[in-house]
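During the no-cost extension, the postdoctoral fellow (Dr. R.K.) reprocessed legacy sequence entries with the updated structure-token encoder. One reprocessed record is reproduced below for audit purposes.
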Amino acid sequence: MSRQFDDLQLGSIELFCLAAELSSFTAAASTAGLTPAAVSRSVSRLEERLGVRLFTRTTRQIRLTEAGRAYFEQARQALGQLVEAEREATGQQLVPAGVLRISLPTPYGHYRVLPLLPAFRALYPAVQVEVNLSNRNVNFADEGYDLAIRGRAQPDSGLVARKLEDAALVVVGAPSYLQQAGTPASLEALQQHDCIQFLLPSSGQKIPWLFSQAGKDLEVATSGGYCCSEDLLGGVTLARHGAGLLQTYRFIVEEDLRLGRLQEVLQPFAGRSRPFSVLYPHGRHVPLRVRLFIDFLLEKLKQ
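Re-encoded structure tokens follow.
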């Protein structure tokens, strides 16, 4: 492998990242033990090498350009991997440390992962956790995430996927709704009920409801007067207040079922589930804190 960077270029990348993090050449210079002019010259050399402007500069402040922000995210990640590799090579990384950046889908985050984070940090207090709750597919390279959890297959073959669990589905309704509309006894009866819909974030299409009948897996298209997008928990709130029937994950409504706020229907046709997996980039050095967190999730969720 031929050399791509000399010591001066690597130093320029480090100073650029430091200035970007602190939003100041002066603060970066103070941290690095240099003069602001030296930091500015170093960043200028990097901009000349790349052929793009990384910062917009005024007399009072600096601000990353769009190209600068994209470069910063990847450069910061690459430098972090170098530090991690050096620690492991010298035996220093015996205790996981640093920032763990994870992206979680809204319901799975609230009900499955967030409740586990205090126990993880009790084991590894030097790890800081940054959580993004979103149902969209994140870009690992551009956005700097260490891992993501998603409930559907990903088209990106550059990602490693490890299944966490198959989350059971259940159809529920509030007692007030069932008293008014009746309790469905068959899948065909769903056509006479208000079925709360959820739109897939990726396509905008309604999610079909999944059932088992006579040993066969079925997808049933339903309809109703309510439709939610982005946040699956919106449908749960509607169901609690008598808006209609809802198919959702059992882990979301376990307490509602126990307390009688919701009732399960169509039990003879239950048994279907959807998988949730943890995703991370293939071929990238996986820091110790990330490996330990994945192992922690696998152990806890299997329990």
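The longest strand covers residues 159-173. The chain has a mean pLDDT of 87. The remaining legacy entries will be reprocessed before the final report is submitted.
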